């Protein structure tokens, strides 16, 4: 059980770590040689020039102007200066709304902290229940929790009233924020510049036709059903093997450039390597010749594979991107059922081109359900088996409980400084380390599931991560921590009193979560701004692989917010704050420090560093809102259970209504605001179409959309591929609907009556 001194030592370590990271960042960002690492976003926007091009030879690498070192904290006010409207133009709505989540945390928890410390902390601290129970393991911090109030005490009324006050304030903040974000999204979509995804839908599960190719079938279907709005389409090729060859070719090119640069620096000796695995064995050969030969061979393989993909009908998947001549047409198609068979011609809004995850478009539609079932089982097993390291972490956090059962460990861990370090710092650090590879594992699982956009992949991974955190980090830590902490009491008491013991010990786990907040939310966030890994990688690439400014730009790694990990972590802090606001308010100041500090850090990163891979117009917000409400309901249910174990049963009936009202509030918000995130208003589409026709009457929309959804591996050689890609889309002639269908009697090859040429799968009755 961590004491005040243990928490103090942990706070000192984490504050010192955070200050060290911030000072290191302040120094490193001033050096000209690191400018591209700490301001890559401005370089990508062509709004910043490298300071290494100016000054003396030493000044290109080290900042010699001592005055700049006196202003090393200027980045903090600079991060807060940019107005939100300018931030949206600069970084996108996703980044702006992500930052608003931290402000929501401050809006909720600052008033809650003031109320809790004004009302609840005095109510809890003036009791002496924990001091009287000698068999119950507790610390000084726990005397400020609800566990310090004796069973049946009327003081529980204060907690009941505060539970209602906290819930009302939280719901009010969430409602106002949902309304604001929904308005921001609609305004952003209305003011957004023309993009290919505004005119395009993704069509999946195209049925086979015995007389037409997939491309012809798609064109035929949409010419018939959208005769005045269909513009063009692009079928999807299974180019996964080609993409892998291109990736290998780029890797060999990097090795070739590295060896060429090495030879240029030391022309007296050509670089060599062994031909075996990783260059560890085999015949020694000239490295430049070796990589040149291998790359040329791979280029030929890639060219042959490319030609095969484009000419083989089997490489065309039953998937297509269909574009319309208006946003209205795309909105209608994306939001309606296309066929009487609801499993065919499935349509949805196309993701913007940079958001498409091309690899999964090649997965047959019938496999998706099986894949998702398998991954659901795998996630369950992962959550189940991860309880083992969680239990180990909790064993570190509850030394006193273990000492009672295993007394021979006492001499080793009773040294004061070691004990404080183990209990106050090590549990949070151990949990952080155990979770470090989890987001990568969950992202791989999401890719196997078959999601076809990066944004969907991140939302799916975030959902899994949230469930994992909820079950393992939160509930798992409480359950296993309680078992270790009160192990002696569990062994010597009857089974009927165990629930009461658990109910009293839930508030006591606040000390563990405090240590985790300091490790992850203080030192961890400060480490984010230092960008140590991108810094090292950039300088290695810059030294070994860079020849031109374009190469140097490729060496930059701006990264992105990473919603798959960032959002579940945020939701964990909301959950902890809401659960412990009533039962152990001492945790709230640590939550507030996290939200304020993280907002400052991430605002700086969004403005200067991160380059988002896609823009979803804050499509993730409904999930954020839902999980905050889930955290609120969990806090109310736990409080209900806790009061029911403390002989305060007369207070539970009024509390039962609270989670019911909270769920009703969520349903209301869902019906009121969520359509803005799942549907596109026809009115808005029509207005934008009208304005565009007035302002750009000569716009060639088909040319604009022609290669928008071409697979990236084909875009590398667009000039030579355009003619071949004409096979993937039909030439337009509005007066005719062409078909090669021979299998239906009395169906002409060419008809001026669209219904007469309707596809067999969803035929129009004649």
Describe, in plain words, how this protein is organized in 3D:
By secondary structure, this protein is mostly helical. It folds into two domains: 4-51 and 59-193 and 366-679, no CATH class; 204-351, no CATH class. Helices cover 63% and strands 5% of the residues. The protein contains 36 helices and eight strands. Strands 2-5-1-6 form a four-stranded antiparallel β-sheet. The protein has a two-stranded antiparallel sheet with strand order 3-4. A two-stranded antiparallel ribbon has the order 7-8. α1 runs parallel beside α25, α16 runs antiparallel to α20 and α21 (438-449) packs across α22. The radius of gyration is 31 Å and the shape is globular. It is found in: Membrane. Residues 371-643 form the CSC1/OSCA1-like 7TM region domain.
Ranges where pLDDT stays below 50 over 5 or more residues in a row are 731-735, 744-760
Report the sheet-strand fraction.
under 5%
- Spatial strand arrangement across the major sheet: 2-5-1-6
Helix proportion range: 55-70%
- Find the structural class using helix and strand composition: mainly alpha
**E-strand count:** 8
> How many helices in DSSP terms?
36
- Domains, number: 2
* Cα-atom radius of gyration: 31 Å
Largest sheet: 4 strands, antiparallel
Average pLDDT metric: 81
Amino- and carboxy-terminal Cα gap: 79 Å
Tell me the overall shape.
globular
């Amino acid at each position: 059980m961590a004491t005040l001194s243990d928490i103090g030592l942990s706070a000192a370590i984490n504050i010192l770590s955070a200050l060290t990271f911030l000072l290191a960042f302040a120094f490193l960002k001033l050096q000209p040689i690191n400018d591209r690492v700490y301001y890559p976003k401005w370089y990508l926007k062509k709004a910043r020039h490298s300071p290494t091009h100016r000054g003396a030879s030493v000044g290109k690498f080290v900042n010699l102007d001592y005055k700049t070192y006196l202003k090393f904290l200027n980045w903090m006010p600079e991060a807060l200066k940019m107005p939100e409207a300018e931030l949206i133009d600069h970084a996108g709505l996703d980044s702006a709304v992500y930052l608003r989540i931290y402000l929501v945390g401050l809006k909720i928890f600052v008033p809650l902290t003031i109320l809790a410390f004004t009302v609840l902390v005095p109510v809890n601290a003036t009791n002496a229940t924990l001091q009287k129970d000698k068999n119950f393991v507790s610390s000084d911090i726990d005397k400020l929790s609800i566990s310090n109030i004796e069973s049946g005490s009327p003081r529980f009324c204060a907690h009941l009233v505060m539970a209602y006050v906290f819930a009302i304030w939280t719901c009010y903040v969430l409602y106002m924020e949902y309304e604001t974000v929904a308005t921001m999204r609609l305004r952003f979509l209305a003011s957004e510049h023309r993009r290919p995804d505004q005119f395009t839908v993704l069509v999946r599960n195209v049925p086979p036709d015995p007389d037409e190719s997939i491309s012809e079938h798609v064109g035929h279907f949409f010419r018939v059903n959208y005769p005045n709005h269909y513009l063009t389409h692009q079928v999807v090729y299974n180019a996964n093997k080609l993409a892998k060859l291109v990736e290998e070719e780029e890797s060999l090119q990097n090795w070739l450039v590295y060896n060429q640069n090495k030879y240029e620096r030391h022309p007296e000796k050509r670089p060599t390597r062994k031909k075996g695995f990783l260059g560890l064995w085999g015949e020694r050969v000239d490295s430049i010749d070796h990589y040149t030969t291998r790359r040329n061979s791979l280029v030929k393989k890639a060219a042959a594979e490319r030609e095969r993909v484009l000419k083989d009908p089997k490489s065309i998947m039953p998937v297509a991107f269909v574009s319309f001549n208006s946003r209205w047409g795309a909105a209608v198609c994306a939001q309606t059922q296309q066929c009487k068979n609801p499993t065919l011609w499935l349509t949805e809004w196309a993701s913007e081109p940079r958001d498409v995850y091309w690899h999964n478009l090649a997965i047959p539609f019938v496999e998706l359900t099986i894949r998702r079932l398998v991954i659901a089982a795998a996630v369950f097993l992962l959550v189940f088996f991860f309880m083992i390291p969680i239990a180990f972490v909790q064993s570190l956090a509850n030394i006193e409980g273990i000492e009672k059962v295993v007394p021979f460990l006492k001499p080793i861990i009773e040294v004061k400084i070691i004990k404080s370090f183990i209990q106050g710092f090590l549990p949070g650090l151990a949990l952080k380390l155990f979770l470090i590879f989890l987001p990568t594992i969950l992202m791989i699982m999401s890719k196997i599931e078959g999601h076809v956009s990066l944004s969907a992949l991140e939302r799916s991974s975030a959902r899994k991560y949230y469930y994992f955190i909820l079950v393992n980090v939160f509930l798992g830590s409480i359950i296993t921590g309680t078992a270790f902490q009160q192990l002696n009491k569990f062994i010597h008491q009857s089974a009927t009193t165990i629930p009461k013991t658990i109910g009293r010990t839930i508030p006591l786990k606040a000390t563990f979560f405090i240590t985790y907040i300091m490790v992850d939310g203080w030192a961890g966030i400060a480490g984010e701004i230092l960008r140590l890994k991108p810094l090292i990688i950039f300088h290695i690439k810059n030294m070994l692989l860079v020849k031109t400014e374009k190469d140097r730009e490729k060496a930059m790694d701006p990264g992105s917010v990473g919603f798959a990990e960032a959002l579940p972590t945020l939701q964990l802090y909301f959950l902890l704050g809401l659960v412990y606001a009533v039962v152990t308010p001492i945790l709230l100041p640590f939550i507030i420090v996290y939200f304020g500090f993280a907002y400052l850090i991430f605002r700086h990163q969004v403005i200067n560093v991160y380059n988002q891979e896609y823009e979803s117009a804050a499509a993730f917000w409904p999930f954020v809102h839902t999980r905050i409400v889930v955290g609120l309901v969990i806090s109310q249910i736990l409080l209900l259970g806790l009061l029911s174990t403390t002989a305060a049963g007369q207070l539970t009936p009024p509390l039962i209504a609270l989670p019911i009202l909270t769920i009703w509030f969520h349903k209301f918000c869902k019906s009121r605001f969520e359509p803005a995130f799942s549907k596109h208003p026809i009115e808005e589409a029509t207005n934008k179409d009208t304005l565009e026709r007035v302002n750009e009457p000569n716009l060639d929309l088909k040319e604009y959309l022609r290669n928008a959804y071409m697979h990236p591996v084909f875009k590398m050689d667009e000039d030579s591929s355009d003619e071949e890609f004409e096979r993937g889309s039909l030439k337009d002639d509005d007066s005719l609907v062409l078909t090669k269908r021979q299998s239906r009697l009395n169906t002409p090859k060419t008809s001026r009556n669209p219904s007469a040429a309707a596809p067999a799968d969803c035929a129009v009755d004649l």
